[in-house]
Hints:
Distance between the termini: 40 Å
Order of helices and strands: EEEEEEEEEEE
Number of helices: 0
Amino acid sequence: QVQLVESGGGLVQAGGSLGLSCAASGNIFSVDDVGWYRQAPGKQRELVAGITRGGVSNYVESVQGRFTISRDNAKNMVYLQMNSLKPADTAVYYCAADRRGGGGRCHYVSRNCDYWGQGTQVTVSS
């Protein structure tokens, strides 16, 4: 089994920055690709950023150039650095991952993720 725990959420003014962390524990070898997802009130859950085990990243257009996803496999950590935050970024942010050999593509598609964190609230005030 794998457990994912997010941290770093909070309240920030528009234009500010927050850094989110996702710590993985358990059977770390099983973790393959990782995605950061978010869900705002009244909206569908969407992919924010994804990263493969090898470090190849992808982003939704609305955060391109503002957010950076990274991972440190040796430390079992995944990060999302969020700069130039906007009120539209307000949401619960989730860290998710798929397992090796499952073909999940969790860095693109939420339904293929095998592991999920509990979520962390990010609120951006205007």
